[in-house]
Amino acid sequence: MKQQRQQQQQENKEENTYVNGNGNGCDESKCVSTTSMFDISNHSYTCYGEKENHGTDMMCADGYLPRTVDNETTVSGLDIHGEVTSFQYFTCCPHDFPAKTNVTRHCSDPTTNFVEPVGIGQSTNSSNMICEDETHQFPREMKSDLYGNPSYICCDSEQDKTFGNYLNETECVPYFSQFEYREGISYNVYGNLGAMTCDFPDGSFQFRRNVVVGNDGYFNWDCCKTGPATNPFVQDTTFKITVYPQIVLSSIAVFSCLIVIVGLLLPLFSEQRQQGIQQTNSSRRNRGQNEQDYSTYNLYLVYLAFPDLILNIYLLGMYGSYANQKFNENFYMVVVSTLFDADNMSILKAHEGSLIVACSTANLFLNAVVSYEVFILLRNCHETKINNPPSLKKVSLQAIVVYAFAICVFGISFYTGDVDNVATWCFFLVIYILPIGFVVCITVTISLRGFMPSATGKMKELAWYFFRIVVVFCFLWIPAFFLLFLGQFNNDLFYRVYVVFFLVCAIESIVSNCMVLTKSDVRKYVFDLITLSCIRSTNSQQENQY
């Protein structure tokens, strides 16, 4: 009984200390909540928040904790969903403020009416703040808002600055950044995954914790001093629909590209080796015959598969890391948003946009080169001229030039970055329109001049085969780019457009690689690789040589 009496006396002593103002009590200048009620907040932080924590959290700075002022009338405003809701007034109290002590309002709504203009990010003093209400004569500077704009409130007493910071005693804060007071809240929509981050370079509150997922799809988190940290993504149904189809398609695309590349390169290397042995044995005649065994046109397929392989490896790696809850705050995709760039709807991440542009440039211009070579082949057949296929050196040189140009395009796109710039848009139109227009002109010329019926046998098979590749490319790849341009002008479609585009990248690669099998010699090479017949054949040839 005596112990209970002493505890009650201690609580009464603490309560009297705060009520009488002899200690560091509640302070409304520590409020850092944001609402849509600009007539009250004057576009600054305010002491209004949602009581049920539906998105406009009651937040305080410097380790203070929010306490609802029950005798204040609620006001109506719009929440983060755009729906009308009630906001309750609160104040900010020390972490050890007695729970049974009632709190009251002592300050006005925020104002930006300074005597002398105050610049963004600048502090001010009491002589520059006007308090005309006789009952609230004492100004208190508030925290600058998200954009660095200062504001202040007028209170009925001077601010007690004896103890102004409780961050050392605070375990978690509801905001995500050391530099701005924005609550940790995000959501997942198709093509736009919210990543939970804590930006505290000083290492103070670096662990994501206390994740709460609401029925409306939004999720909140705190940033805490100690871990372990929770996963960066909430893997709901929207997350799975966005991530896993891309993983499946890109996996198939990477596998098919590797099959085509390896399947077409092995017989080329084997033939080159045999020619070297024959040359050593001075078998000139046989060497000349064997040079015709491998069609150099197949080498174009290898070079066409490399850009698809690179892009799909990137997509597989990035999407796979998100599925495994791995997230790098300095390197991530456009389909992921953090609170740092949640409002940035106009540009892609620099590295990702540059990679897309470079790979598409390589594909477009290589298809243009292939179209030209097919045009030469069909024209010679039509004029009954002897057609010499391009040499391995010529094919490789053409591919190297295209790859070098694609690398230059990557650099230009990466270092210019701003797709809203008119010069950059013109640059993109040139690298897309030129090769597309060239392929269309070649196709129309071949059709109008009747070159296709002139080809016979393997020449006709080769011509039709490459035109199937071009048709697949045009009907999948090119519309995807027009979709990208559409997304740049429509914020509602922006993220959905890009996630669909990435799916098309994988589908285009898969379909193109399937078209490879319509060419008889390519089909044989791929089948030999899958069944390992090429290895057995190579071993038999080596045994025959010795």
CATH superfamily of the largest domain: Rhodopsin 7-helix transmembrane proteins
Order of helices and strands: HHEEEEEEEEEEEHHHEHHHHHHH
Q: Give the strand content.
A: 5-15%
Tally of extended strands? 12
Give average pLDDT, whole number.
Answer: 79
Tell me which CATH architecture of the largest domain applies here.
Up-down Bundle
Helix content: 40-55%
Largest sheet: 4 strands, antiparallel
According to CATH, what is the topology of the largest domain?
Rhopdopsin 7-helix transmembrane proteins
Q: Whole-number radius of gyration?
A: 34 Å
Low-pLDDT segments? 11-23, 283-292, 342-347, 542-546
Give the number of helices.
12
Q: Could you give the distance between the termini?
A: 105 Å
Class based on secondary structure composition and strand pairing: alpha+beta
Q: Outline, from the CA principal axes? A: elongated
The first-level CATH class of the largest domain is given as: Mainly Alpha
Number of domains: 3
Main features:
single chain; 546 residues; Rhopdopsin 7-helix transmembrane proteins; four-stranded antiparallel sheet; 12 helices; 12 strands; elongated; disordered C terminus
Verbal overview:
This protein has 546 residues and is an alpha+beta fold. The chain folds into three domains: 124 residues, no CATH class; 53 residues, no CATH class; 307 residues, Rhodopsin 7-helix transmembrane proteins (Rhopdopsin 7-helix transmembrane proteins). Helices cover 49% and strands 9% of the residues. The protein contains twelve helices and twelve strands. Strands 1, 2, 3 and 4 form a four-stranded antiparallel sheet that branches. Strands 7, 8, 10 and 11 form a four-stranded antiparallel sheet that branches. It has a two-stranded antiparallel ribbon with strand order 5-6. A hairpin with a 5-residue loop joins strand 3 and strand 4. Helix 6 runs antiparallel to helix 7 and helix 6 packs parallel to helix 8. The termini are far apart. The relative contact order is 0.08. The C terminus is likely disordered.
